[in-house]
Amino acid sequence: MTVTTTTIEDRAQAFYNSFFDTATIHLMDVAEGLKQPSKAEIAAYGDTMKTYPIDTALEALQGYGLSKETVYYIALAGGGPAARVRVAVEDGEVVNASLQFQDWFTLWTDAPQQNRELVERYARLVGYFDG
């Protein structure tokens, strides 16, 4: 039995490639009024694609939903290494906070064993978040 492992980056790229295929890109062009619907799109979405191509294409492109997240960063240390608190806010209230660390040429990384309640408490004390 052969087990194939792929990285999360590989899986993310595969999803990106399958999502932004030629059909999706063409629907985006129709939604922006750059192109006319194809015969396949008219067959798939019916007469509304003929009559209201922009609206129908926009509806076809909708994902699972749209959400807004406002994020603030509280700088704790600069340079290399650097540290910050990443604070997600909804309606002016802290909904998530995490301490992140970064060194030269590395990505921001959450401290793996942090007490989220403690970090959220810190964020509420020192930050003003207008949401």
Shape from CA axes?
Answer: elongated
Helix content: 40-55%
The helix/strand class is: alpha+beta
Mean pLDDT: 88
N- and C-termini, Cα separation: 52 Å
How would you spell out the order of helices and strands?
HHHHHEEEEH
Strand content: 15-25%
Total beta strands: 4
Strand count, sense and closure of the main sheet? 4 strands, antiparallel
Number of helices: 6
Oligomer: single chain
Rg over CA atoms: 22 Å
List the helices and strands and how they pair.
Layout: H1 8-19, H2 22-31, H3 39-45, H4 47-51, H5 53-61, E1 70-77, E2 82-90, E3 93-102, E4 109-110, H6 116-126
Antiparallel strand pairs: 1-2, 2-3, 3-4
Helix pairs in contact: 2-5
Q: TL;DR of this structure?
A:
The protein is α+β, with helices and mostly antiparallel strands and 131 residues long. 41% of the residues lie in helices and 22% in strands. The protein is elongated and about 55 Å long.
General description of the model:
The chain is α+β, with helices and mostly antiparallel strands and 131 residues long. It contains six helices and four strands. It has helices spanning 8-19, 22-31, 39-45, 47-51, 53-61, 116-126; strands at residues 70-77, 82-90, 93-102, 109-110. Strands 1-2-3-4 form a four-stranded antiparallel beta sheet. A hairpin with a 2-residue loop joins β2 (82-90) and β3 (93-102). α2 (22-31) packs across α5 (53-61). The longest helix is centred in the N-terminal third of the chain and has 12 residues, at 8-19. The radius of gyration is 22 Å and the shape is elongated. The model has no long low-confidence stretch (mean pLDDT 88).
